[in-house]
Each structure stands twice: as structure tokens, then as C-alpha cells.
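Action item from last week, closing it out:
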Amino acid sequence: MTLIDRRLLLAAGFSAGLAGLAFAQTPAASPPAATTTPSETRFITVASTTSTQDSGLFGHILPLFKAKTGIEVRVISQGTGQALDTGRRGDADVVFVHARAAELKFVEEGFSLERKPVMYNDFVLIGPKADPAGIAGSKDIAAALVKIQEKGAPFVSRGDKSGTHIAELALWKAAGVDLDAKKGPWYREIGQGMGAALNTAGAMGAYVLSDRGTWLSFKNRGDLVISVEGDKRLFNQYGVMSVNPAKHPHVKFNDGKLFVDWLTSPEGQKAIADYKIDGQQLFFPNAAQAGA
């Protein structure tokens, strides 16, 4: 082999060695960037009374909160009693309901550090245009309930331990009507939400207690009208509470508190006041009212 041939062979080997070294030192290709999946969305879970959902309020305010914070609010819509129990189990980060005594008990039990008032509206007694109890136009809810019971006029109760159901039972008591003794075929408990109760009342030609917000947004009214309104005993206050992380460490306390703080801030209160149907305001913010 000539000198030239040996040099060519050595050069080829050296080049191959460099190529192998370069290949060995080339970093492995980076994996493609992970895409965000729905499970990675920043969100909180709010257990709330059906009226905030059925009235359309959440459809109005939750997009505003998400636009400001990037936090999605996922709602469990259920009666107040069920919503409070959902919070007790740690299955929600925030509870937004309307039964003040039950809310304060929730705090006393340690499931929340604080209850904050948010807004109010009122209850209305809905009934058929035919008005079998003869109560239309009354502003005395207790007298109206007495007449319904005495005449055996059909009445639909949610019967679901919701804020509306709790209020209804309190009104019967205020009217001096012992439901345990007076219940009969005229009184029907359905164990369902406000929309279902209104639909049942419409089908039966019955009376039913409703929050005004759900009534104003209810489309299937048929022959139902407002029979009684304006009694101060029909006042309906809403409160909100973050679930205590000392009870349930997994709850999203900080993000939940952001929602509570936003609801009770001037911005959140304005968003609530701005929600209207046919020009009628459904909820009236009062977070700044002491003792509400």
C-alpha cells in the first residue's frame, strides 16, 4: 500500500470517528410540548342553590369572573340543604345558598371560616288564575296559607330541604298551621327543584312558593300567576362561604376565596345588579349590609 493510500485510509477512519462522536453527543430530540387537557383547566366547584342557576344569574356573572381571573366555575346545582352537605363532604370549594340560620350553623361547625352576605330578593306565592283559595292580591302570606289549608286547595312543596323549602315550612309555622296534623291529598311534596315544582303546580292547578328570580325566568307558566307578594316575611337573603381547608385540605381555598371576594366586591355586586329579565332586576346586592 502506498503512502498516499495509507493517508487516505487514516483520513476516512478519522472522519468516521468524528461523525460517530458527533452523533453520540447530539442531544435527544425534545418531546413535543404537552397540550393542556380539560383536566388541567383552572377551576373551582361551587355548590349552589338551584335559583342562582335556574334564574340565569350564573350564566350572566360566571363568564365575567372567568374573564377577570382565568378561573372556571363549575356549578353543582341543588337545594340549599344538599349544597351545604356537599360542602361538609369537601366535594365543593364554595357554597352559595339562601338559608341564613343553616349557613351560620355551617360556620359554627367549622366547615367554613366566614359567611358573607351577597344579595337578596324575595319569595312569591304562585297560584292558578282560578284562585281556588281566594287569596289573589293579598300581601299577608300567613293568612293566605291558612285559607289554602282550610279549603284544601292543592299546594306543591319542593320537599327537598332547599332554602325555599325551609322558608316554606317557616311560613306555615308562622301561619299557625301544623302540617304534620293537617297534611292531606291537597299537600304534595315532590322532593325536586324549583323548576319541577313550578311545572307540577302548573299541571295540578296548585299553589307553590317560589323565589322571584326563578319565577321571572320561568317560561312554562301556563295559567300560573303571582297570588301573594310584598309581605316582609317573604324576604330572601343569599350568603356565600369558602370551605375550610382545615376540614378538607384538598379544597381549592385560595381560588375559592377569590370567587367569594369577587362576588362581594363592587365589581361583582354590579354584575349581580346588572342582571335583568325584561327590564326587571332579579337580585339586589347587599354585601356591605352588616348582619344581612
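Closing note: The longest strand covers residues 116-128.
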